[in-house]
Design a protein that fits this description.
Chain lengths: ~300, ~300
């Protein structure tokens, strides 16, 4: 694992499924290869957008094996492993650690709300001890609106004091740029990824690591151009365009929106397969999103 | 399964654990027997209070087997089976259905928020089809503050229209008595349990089924007296006392509060074993709760 590589534009990959909603392993590997070819520096497997929380632990372990055995790009993958039950988080994280992955992206135990920092520390302590790997690199998944369980700055400080770079960074999906700023300022070396490419240029300018995003499943090449050139060129126009595309997707739930557009772009309806509680966009929604993206002349090179 | 019995006072049982936080199956069976002896009409296994969401699916299946094999009170149990992944919910529900349980208490898939009623219907449709048992009785677990995913009246109506009494009732932990009222009024025969015994008398008076509560782990005998006598006697004083005890517990997180008090009452510190993100009450918190309960002269007959 070359840690220097863990920065830039990451896509939280979609999970292609068959008609019976079982995993289409081949299509997933194909999509991941395309994401990297389309400009992404890395991939998060099992993020929110990957329908990770609609997959059983056994399914996730099988996907890890199918995708990572003999995979030359394992080190460009961060694997989502955070479950409600710490026992499941340990199990999945150990499984991911069989491969030379860049790290794991870990939600806090997210069913119980209003829990104390002491309790969250104990949960992550149990994960670190349970995994027991010196090369474990945890990226905290801070997504208060979805998980209902935020990571406070005090808690992150405590993780870093106790475990150093085992706590390698964070994906901040709060949408709160002030929080990203505060983490970058407080914790040198801690990699702060914005949860949306709308903040890509902004976060790079203040020392952030990049972005990990749902919509970079489609916008990877636009985002990657900004990441490659932001230090030498004025990328504000490119960022404005990228942000507009992101905003178009934000008008719809991400998983249905992205899968629906993938189906349109590839003319392959298998992309419409998704697990409840998600359903494909309605015909109207789908046409609306297509129109918004057409108006921006946006279409990825699939 | 005698469905008429599924009413009254249910406790969402605590889950006793050993020092290494593995399940203490014997202590759990003992506690369940005591709950029934202490006045509870039934038990919810794997509710929020049971730390269900800190247990793996495999652990829950083992607990079901250990507790229910040859168990004469299986029909007084409702088993919590709602997971984030529908696949897990089906797996657990099928497992519970091996025994003559009264029903299952099922959270919606609770990671993804702001999902549509269509999506939630599809999720429960997949559960009903996946379990495929004519005697399946689902109690919906409506707990918006914890799950972040409420059940609307429209959705419940759709469940009932499509599947009749497979959708047998609801545990309403919203704290919103108007919502309980509305369900009782709209859906005759649908069993509405209040999520707190503070509403026990109120909900019985309007045709509700009873309560399913965390704190009836301690208050079962008080609550059961109200349930047995409310039609013939004035139970408003008993209800006021019961509500006061409930309120004392509400000043603390339920799992730490209840386990800490069980440890004090039984003089058995094994009750202090709980999984992160929960930790025992501090010494001060513990003394404070004890004082509040002492002031009410409350102590269960353990």
């Amino acid at each position: 694992m070359d840690e220097k590589k863990t920065r830039g534009v990451f896509a939280a990959t979609l999970t292609p499924m068959k008609t019976d909603l079982s995993i289409d392993h081949e299509a997933l590997a194909r999509h991941c290869r395309w994401l990297l070819k389309n400009g992404c520096d890395g991939i998060v497997l099992f993020g929110t957008t990957g329908e990770a929380n609609s997959l059983t632990v056994a399914e996730r372990k099988e996907i890890i094996d199918m995708l990572l055995e003999g995979n030359p790009f394992a080190e460009r993958l961060i694997v989502g492993t955070g479950c409600c039950a710490v026992g499941d988080t340990v199990d999945l994280t150990r499984h991911a650690q069989r491969y030379p992955v860049a790290g794991v992206l870990t939600l806090p135990p997210f069913y119980y709300k209003n829990v104390s920092d002491d309790g969250l520390f104990a949960a992550f302590d149990a994960v670190v001890q349970g995994v027991g790997a010196a090369d474990l690199r945890i990226y905290l998944y801070h997504f208060p609106k979805m998980s209902g369980v935020p990571f406070s700055l005090n808690l992150i400080e405590r993780f870093l004091k106790s475990y150093g770079n085992t706590f390698a960074g964070v994906k901040d999906s709060s949408g709160d740029f002030e929080n990203m700023k505060a983490m970058i300022k407080a914790f040198p070396g801690f990699r702060v990824f914005a949860g949306t490419e709308a903040y890509l240029l902004d976060i790079l300018r203040i020392g952030g690591a990049g972005c990990i995003s749902a919509t970079t499943n489609a916008t990877g090449s636009l985002a990657s151009e900004i990441f490659r050139r932001w230090e030498s060129d004025d990328m504000s126009e490119a960022q404005a365009r990228l942000t507009s595309v992101r905003k178009a997707f934000e008008a719809f739930p991400f998983i249905p929106g992205l899968k629906t557009m993938m189906a349109r772009w590839t003319e392959n309806d298998a992309w419409l397969n998704m697990r409840p509680p998600f359903l494909p966009l309605t015909r109207e929604g789908s046409a609306d999103l297509q129109e918004r993206l057409n108006a921006l002349h946006f279409r990825p090179n699939l």
